[in-house]
Design goal:
The chain is an all-alpha fold. The chain is 68% helix and 2% strand. The strands form two sheets. It has a two-stranded antiparallel ribbon with strand order 1-4.
C-alpha cells in the first residue's frame, strides 16, 4: 500500500495540502509566540485554540468524507465517536486536577464529591496515565464502531436505514451521558481543566503546541486516507459505493471492507475529539447531539464529497463563517444561513467547492491541450499532400 501511495496517490494536490498544513503548524505558533502584539502579523493567543478547533473539525469531516465519499456510507452519528474521544481526553484532564479542585479531593473530581460519591468508578481507572488515555481515545470509538458495524453490515443495512440507526445510536448515547449516575458529569460534563502533560493548559505555549498537534494529526490522517484510496483496497471501496451488489457478486466480502473503513473512520473521529477538548476547555453530552453529525455532513457536502481535500476545506470554511456570524448581530440567523448554504451548494455546486473548482480546472486543461494540438498540426498535414490532390493513378 505504501509503494502504491507514493507511486499513484502522492500527487501534486496531496503535496500542496500537506505543505499547507505543515506551514500552518509552524507559522501560526511562531506568529503567536514570537511576534509583538503591535505587529500586524501577530496572532493573539485566544485565536490559536479557535484555529485549532477548526483543524479538529476538519479531521472529523475527513473521517466522514472517507466513508461517505469513497464507500457510500452516510453516517449521521459520527458525533458519537468524536464525543467519546473527547470524553476519554477529558477524563485524563480531570484526573490531573487532583487536590487543586474546589473540594480538594486528590482522587475524586469535584462533581463526584458534590454528588457524594465515595469512590472512583471503575471506568475512570487508569486515566491518570496519558498513554492509557490516548489508547482509550482510539479503542473506545473503535470498539463501538466495530460492534455496530459488525451487526449492521452483516445484516446488509444500507442507505437511509443505516443513516437512521447511526443517528439513533448517538441520540441514545447522549441520553445516557446526561444521567448523573453514569459517572461522567451529567449535564455539566467535564471542565475546569488545569494541566496537560504537566503544562498549564491556558499557557500560550501549550495552546500553540495543541494547534501544532492538531495540524500534525490532520496530516497523518490525510496521508492514511490518501494511501487507502490509492491502493487496491480503495478501488474496491469505490466499486462498493457505485455498485455494491455487483461487487458482492464478483466475490468480494463487502461487509469486511465496509467494516474496516468504518472502524478506521470512527478512530479518526475519536482523535479529533481528543484534540478538541483541551482547546475548548469542556466536553459535555451536547457533543452527542444528532444535529452535530448532520452539520458534519454539510461540511463534507460544501467542500466536496469524493475528494479528500473537500471535507477539510468545507469544515474550515463553514466554521469560520459560523464564528463570524455568531459573534455579531447576525447570530440568530446562522442556522438560516447554514441551511441556505447547503441548499445553494446542492443546487448550483453539486460537486462542492473543491469539486467544482477541480472540474473547471480539468476542463480548462483539456481545452488548452486541444488548442495546442490543433495549433501544432503542420500545414502539410492540414492541406493534404503536395499539389493539393491525391495521386490516384495506379502504380506500374
Amino acid at each position: 500500500m505504501i509503494g502504491t501511495f507514493f507511486k499513484n496517490g502522492f500527487d501534486r494536490s496531496a503535496v500542496i495540502v500537506i505543505l499547507l498544513l505543515v506551514a500552518a503548524a509552524i507559522i501560526v505558533p511562531v506568529l503567536s509566540l514570537y511576534t509583538s502584539p503591535t505587529n500586524p502579523f501577530h496572532i493573539p493567543s485566544y485565536a490559536v485554540p479557535l484555529m485549532g478547533k477548526y483543524l479538529t473539525y476538519a479531521l472529523l469531516a475527513l473521517s466522514v468524507g472517507l466513508i461517505w465519499g469513497y464507500c457510500g456510507i452516510l453516517s449521521l452519528g459520527h458525533a458519537a465517536f468524536f464525543a467519546l474521544g473527547g470524553y476519554a481526553m477529558g477524563m485524563y484532564l480531570m484526573r490531573q486536577i487532583g487536590s487543586r479542585g474546589v473540594y480538594g479531593d486528590p482522587i475524586l473530581p469535584d462533581f463526584m464529591v458534590f454528588l457524594n460519591w465515595k469512590e472512583l468508578p471503575i471506568a475512570w481507572y487508569g486515566f491518570q496515565s496519558f498513554p492509557y488515555a490516548m489508547l482509550m481515545v482510539i479503542l473506545v470509538p473503535g470498539i463501538l464502531a466495530f460492534v455496530f458495524g459488525w451487526f449492521a453490515f452483516r445484516s446488509r443495512v444500507t442507505g437511509v436505514y443505516l443513516s437512521i440507526i447511526t443517528q439513533a445510536m448517538t441520540f441514545a448515547l447522549m441520553l445516557g451521558f446526561f444521567r448523573n449516575n453514569l459517572g461522567f458529569g451529567g449535564n455539566n460534563g467535564l471542565t475546569d481543566f488545569k494541566d496537560i502533560l504537566g503544562f498549564n493548559i491556558q499557557a500560550p505555549e501549550t495552546r500553540a503546541a495543541l494547534f501544532a498537534a492538531s495540524a500534525i494529526a490532520l496530516i497523518v490522517a490525510y496521508i492514511i486516507c490518501k494511501a487507502i484510496i490509492a491502493s487496491r483496497f480503495g478501488k474496491v471501496l469505490v466499486a462498493i459505493r457505485d455498485a455494491e451488489s455487483r461487487t458482492r457478486f464478483l466475490g468480494y466480502r463487502v461487509e469486511h471492507y465496509k467494516l474496516l473503513v468504518w472502524t478506521l473512520s470512527a478512530c479518526m473521529a475519536g482523535v479529533a475529539g481528543a484534540l478538541y477538548v483541551p482547546q475548548v476547555g469542556i466536553i459535555n453530552p451536547g457533543e452527542f447531539e444528532p444535529a452535530n453529525s448532520i452539520e458534519v455532513v454539510i461540511w463534507v457536502a460544501v467542500g466536496g464529497r469524493g475528494l479528500l481535500v473537500g471535507p477539510i476545506v468545507g469544515a474550515i470554511v463553514v466554521n469560520f463563517a459560523k464564528s463570524w456570524f455568531t459573534t455579531g448581530a447576525l447570530a440568530p440567523y446562522w442556522l438560516f444561513a447554514l441551511g441556505g448554504l447547503f441548499i445553494g451548494v446542492t443546487l448550483f455546486l453539486p460537486k462542492g467547492i473543491v469539486g467544482t473548482i477541480a472540474g473547471q480546472w480539468d476542463a480548462l486543461k483539456q481545452r488548452r491541450a486541444s488548442a495546442e494540438a490543433e495549433a501544432g498540426m503542420s500545414p502539410a498535414a492540414a492541406d493534404g499532400p503536395p499539389g493539393g490532390r491525391l495521386n490516384t493513378e495506379p502504380a506500374e
